[in-house]
Amino acid sequence: MNLFKDIKAFFSGKRQYTFYFLTLTFGDSLLAILLSVMQVFGLRAGRKTKNRFLADIKNDYRFKEAYLFGSARSSLYALLKSLEYEKGSEVLLTGYTCEVVPNAVINAGFVPIYVDIDPSSYCMDPLQIEKSITTKSRVIVIQHTFGIPAHIEEILIIARKHNLYIIEDCAVSLGSKYKGSLTGTFGDAAIFSFELSKTITSCWGGMLLLNSDKDNAIKLMDRLYSKVPEQKYRQRIMTLFQLGMSGILYSPKIYILSKYLIALLFKLRIFSPSTTSYEYKGCLPLDYLVKLTSEQTIVLRRQYSRTELLFKKRQELKMQYIDKYSEHLDSKFIQLVSDKDVVLIRFPLLIENRQATSVWFDKKYIELGTWFTSPLSSELIDTDVFNYKPGSCRNSESVSKKIINLPLIPYCSRVIIGNSTLFEY
């Protein structure tokens, strides 16, 4: 009966569903599928595309060396693994992050130390950093949450005072700038994510930029990267297939029907989730550390060439959200995100009754994001595994109980902006 209603709603045009994919076009999707089929017959493509993509990146970012990995988390792991710090050294993290970040830290042999957030920015609070620094502190990871630049200047002063290695986590801040300079250009290193939910996607993928040679990082990273394997035959096929099919099946126009096929593909393990069961338990899967393929990079580069248009659309929608819901937003938050150079990947809001709000979104067939419902992404995670002590990041814990995030996609954004009942639950 529900399926019949869904089909009827689909053909009547009354219901749609929105997803992350804005730069992944139908042409990109078909190309990814074609490249996947080519893999079956042992045909490789775009062997020089990685260098071309990195040349495009270098036009925008100042870096000395760059490396392409199968994920952002593995690029962080590889960098930490290559640095010759003593085992048990401490890495300062934002106390409002995904569990895959501390998982990379732990498996590299280090100890994650969580720093509470400034609730206005959802980023690391500079006032809390020095309280967390000890004689074992070696690295600080500056996360730009939702695309909002962290308090970079204050954090850099503290980090340099204590001679910490500075890594910017730009997984969701591609294109965002702080005082005219792109996030990812301030630290000694920066990591970027190309996972399915990110600004541009290669299904799974990541990039590491080294902006300095502090602590002999370039030589050490070159040595490690030379030993990182290529993706195996089956992994290449499945990754490209999921990339291409996702761009088609998650389309708002057909999702009412395709969601059943998507569920089946996950059940048959043809599609893979972004985080494996191993990672939830503090371990690494067998195919964790691999290089991004040249075929993935072909699709990625096509999207990167279109990001300026995407950023412009997101800027317009962001300002409409601010205008519509300003009375419900923190004044400091408004000041931070109103900057034309701040490119949000999602628009965060704090809601008193998140469950009722979720029901409203379900009725509208609009995908509602809840990044994150705990300081480590989900309340179901065993915090002991990741060295997080409940109560240590009170702002993060408070925010995570109320947080939702709204899509920055034209159709659904108009629905949300045009509705006046969102905050009446």
Secondary-structure map with pairings?
Elements lengths: L1 H11 L13 H15 L8 H12 L4 E5 L2 H11 L7 E5 L5 H8 L3 E5 L1 E2 L4 E2 L1 H7 L4 E7 L8 H10 L3 E5 L7 E2 L2 E2 L6 E5 L12 E5 L6 H9 L7 H17 L5 H13 L9 H4 L13 H11 L2 H19 L5 H7 L9 E4 L3 H11 L29 H7 L2 E4 L3 H8 L8
Parallel strand pairs: 2-3, 2-6, 6-7, 7-10
Antiparallel strand pairs: 1-11, 4-5, 8-9, 10-11, 12-13
Helix pairs in contact: 2-9, 2-12, 3-12, 4-5, 4-8, 13-17
Description:
This protein is an alpha/beta fold. The chain has a domain at 307-417: Aspartate Aminotransferase, domain 1, CATH 3.90.1150. The protein has helices at 2-12, 26-40, 49-60, 72-82, 100-107, 126-132, 152-161, 217-225, 233-249, 255-267, 277-280, 294-304, 307-325, 331-337, 354-364, 394-400, 410-417; strands at residues 65-69, 90-94, 111-115, 117-118, 123-124, 137-143, 165-169, 177-178, 181-182, 189-193, 206-210, 347-350, 403-406. The longest helix has 19 residues, at 307-325. It is globular and about 55 Å long.
Strand order of the largest sheet: 1-11-10-7-6-2-3
What is the CA-atom radius of gyration, in angstroms? 21 Å
Helix content: 40-55%
Can you give the mean pLDDT? Answer: 91
Q: β content, as a range?
A: 5-15%
Largest sheet: 7 strands, mixed
Distance between the termini: 29 Å
Helix and strand string, N-terminal first?
Answer: HHHEHEHEEEHEHEEEEEHHHHHHHEHHEH
> Which overall shape is indicated by the principal axes computed on the Cα atoms?
globular
Poorly predicted ranges: 9-16
* Class computed from helices, strands and strand pairing: alpha/beta
CATH architecture of the domain at 307-417: Alpha-Beta Complex
CATH class of the domain at 307-417: Alpha Beta
Q: Helix count, per DSSP?
A: 17
What's the CATH H-level homologous superfamily of the domain at 307-417?
A: Aspartate Aminotransferase, domain 1
